[in-house]
Amino acid sequence: MKPLHYLVLLASVYAGAAWADTPLDLSHAATPSVRVTISNIKGEVNITAWDRQAVHVGGTLGDGAEPLEITGTDHDLEIRVRARGHRGLLNWGSDNAMGPSVLDVQVPRGASLDVSVVSAPLSIDGTDGGTIKVDSVSGKIRINARTPRLGVDSVSGSIEQAGHADVADLQTVSGDILAPALGDEARLETVSGRVQVRGGPWKKLKLSTVSGDVDIAGGMAPGGRMDVDSMSGDVQVSLPPEVSTSIHASSFSGDLRSAFGTAERHGHGPGSELNATAGDGNSHIAIESFSGDVRIRNDGR
Predict the structure, then answer these.
(1) Cα(155)–Cα(101) distance, integer angstroms
(2) Cβ contacts of 203 within 8 Å, gap of 6 or more
(3) How far is 125 from 122, CA to CA, in rounded Å?
(4) Angle CA(21)–CA(123)–CA(176) in degrees, nearest 5?
């Protein structure tokens, strides 16, 4: 082999090695209720709980990323993927310079989480007792955890919640919201995604959508309030037979039907309205839809 050809081949081998994904195996001691902040621009984030007083990061670091570290104290730790030469909070605009990073993170079961992702799906599994906050631009979010407070803000990804959330604030623009385990209070907002909600008895449930369909099933706590606002999506609310609540519902151009009371047509124009009371009426449900159909069902029938 000619010396020049040998040098070219050697350079290409070293260049390929330099741009290969880097395996991750990092650990840091942590308290049982540690707060862990995680951010990743591109790739994937998988967080699972374990019964150890430590945070561990496995997976792979993408090409073009700075060496990854777990920084902070045992009470407050940070794991942040950064592109080389970019020091911003989420490295906006730098994702094209960096390959996808896969972070497989183990945290103490009672950890609180603050996660920011851009083009990365996120899963959280098994945490119990800590708060969870998620900001996402595009990527599916799946959370199976018991938490006193859950906050998720997503642009184009769907949100799937399981486990139990005492207080939840879930917002997405174009993704679905599937939340079968909501506790005392919840606020849910979407523009075009479908919303399916289970849980209660609710002290406060507020839900709004523009064009997505809504399916709610659950009871009301004494003194509780449910507010549902839809522009063009259909709304279905299923209540237990023993529910005690007053109900006000209206639809401008959609069909309105209820197992509790009878909807009345407006005599002076389109639309219909329902005012009814179930049981002692010690909670309140308000449902408004512009062009979508409204169904209020009795689960006991």
Answers:
(1) 21
(2) 184, 185, 221, 223, 224, 225
(3) 10
(4) 120
Whole-model pTM: value is 0.88
C-alpha pair distances (Å), 275 with each of 224, 262, 263, 293: 17, 8, 7, 16
The alpha carbon torsion through 57, 59, 61, 62 (nearest 10 deg) reads -150
| Angle, CA of 86, 91 and 95, to the nearest 5° | 100
What distance in Å separates the CA atoms of residue 131 and residue 149, rounded to the nearest whole number? 5
Contact 274, 261 (CB under 8 A): yes
Instruction: Measure the CA–CA gap between 161 and 164, rounded to whole angstroms.
Output: 8
What secondary structure, in 3-state letters, does 217-261 show?
EEEEEEEEEEEEEECCCCEEEEECCCCCEEEEEEECCCCEEECCC
Contact status, residue 233 vs residue 291, Cβ threshold 8 Å: no
CA distance 127 to 130: 7
Please check whether residue 119 is in contact with residue 95, taking contact to mean a CB–CB distance below 8 angstroms.
yes
Instruction: Tell me the pLDDT tens digit for each residue of 230-275.
Output: 999 999 999 999 999 999 999 999 899 999 999 888 666 678 999 9
Tens-digit pLDDT profile for residues 104-121:
999 999 999 999 999 999
pLDDT in tens, 31-53: 999 999 999 999 999 999 999 99
Across the strands, what pairs with 230? Answer: 209, 289
pLDDT in tens, 209-222: 999 899 999 999 99
